[in-house]
Amino acid sequence: MSKFLSYEDRMIIAQRLQENASFGAIGKELGKDRTTIAKEIKKYSYDKKSGRPGYPYNPCKFRATCKAKRICGTSCTHQSAYKCSLCSECTLHCSDFVEDVCSVKNKPPYVCNGCRQLPKCTLLKRIYNPSDAHERAHYAISEARTGIMSNEDDIARINRIISPLVQNGQLLHQIYLDHVDELMCSEKTLYNYVDAQLFDIRNIDLPRKVKYRPRYKKPEFKVDRGCRIERSYADFQKYLGAHPETTIVQMDSVIGRVGGKCLLTIHFVESSLMLAFLRDANTSASVIEIINVFDEVLGTKTFNSLFPVILTDNGSEFSNPKEIEKRSTIPCNRTKIFYCDPSAPYQKGACEVNHELIRRILPKGSSFDELTQQDITLMMNHINSYKRKKLNNRSPYETFSFYYGEDVLKKLGCSPIAAENIILKPKLLKK
Fold first, then answer.
1. How much of the chain exceeds pLDDT 70, in percent?
2. Which residues in 8-111 belong to E strands, given as ranges?
3. Helices (H), 145-221
4. Taking the model in full, what pTM does it have?
5. Three-state SS for 32?
6. Domain tally for the chain?
C-alpha cells in the first residue's frame, strides 16, 4: 500500500468531512492513521474570503448590529451608501472594526466543509478541496525529489573555505580531508556545487576533473527552496493585484556553448526594451554584480522606478534573491524578485519572445567566447531600434525614451540605429 494519499482517498476525505465524520473514522476507512488525516487537512486546506447570497465577505464582530453608513465617503458606489455592513471594503475604513474569528478552524476538523452555518457565514472560511489538495501534494513531492538543496549562506561559507585553496593548486579531495568538520557536507556535494557554478572556482580549476568525460546527464540543480517562499508566481500575481500600476522587469539567461560565456537579459515589459550583458560564467555572483552596477550608475531614485519588481525563472544563477533585492549602501530593499513556476517559461513570455531576435543574430549552439560587451551592446541597439506592431509601430528605444527620457537610455548604454541600417542576422557581429 502506498504511503501517499491518492486522489480517490482525498475525495473520500472531502465527502466524510461533509458528513462530520471523525479523523479516526476516516483513517479507518482509508487504512491510515488519524494523525495522517489531520496533517493532510491542516496542510492542504486553504482560506477563502466569501460571503453569502446578498451579503459580501465581512469578518467584523459587529456586522449583525452595525448601522454605519458612508464610512468610505459620499462618493462610494457600493451598497455601503445604504449600509456599510453590505460593503466588502467597509472594514478597511472603519475605526471600530474588530475581526470575528470562527473557533471551528482552531479545533478538529479545522475546516468549514461540514459546518451547518456555512451557507449563512460571511467570515473567513477554511476549505478542504480534494482536487486542489492533490495538485499541491503532487507538486510538493516532485519538488522534494528534484535537485540538490542547500542554504545560500552555507554555499557562501563553503566557497570561502575551498575556493582560495583550489586557486592555490590544492586538490578538492585534499581540501575535503583537511576541512571535513568545517564543510559539513560530502565530497560529492562539493563537486556538484562546482558543476552548478555556485563557487568562485569552475571545473577548469580542477586539473583532474577536466580529464574525465561526463558519463551521465546531470540532474537539474536547485538551491534552497526556502528562497522561493513568498516569491512564487502566485505571490507575484497577488502583488500585482495589490499594486496594478507596478512596472515589471523580466530577467533571464541566454546560453552559448556549454561551459562558455553567456548572457544576462533584462527585459522591460512595458516598453519591450531589452538589455543584455556578457558574463564569463552563469553564476549568481555575476548576476548580483550586474544589478549592483545598475544601482550605482542609475542612482537610487531611477533604479527604484525602473526595477520595482523582477520576474525570473528557477535557474541557479538567480538563487540568491536577498543579494539581488537588498541595497548594500543603505539597509533597505531596492527591488522585489519573484520566480516563475518550474517548467513554465510562458509566465515570462515577453522576455522569451524577445530572445528570438537575439537568436537571429546568435543562433543556438554558437559560442559567445569571442564576443565582447561592445558586440552585445551593438546587437541590442539594433534589436531595440526595430519597430514593433504592438508598440503602435514604434521601436522599444522610442517607447522607453517616451517614458523615462534619453538620459536614462544613455546611462544604460543604449543608442538608436537608423531603420535602414538595422541588421538582425549573424553577419552583424562578423569580424
1. 87
2. 46-49
3. 152-167, 172-178, 180-183, 187-195
4. 0.56
5. coil
6. 3
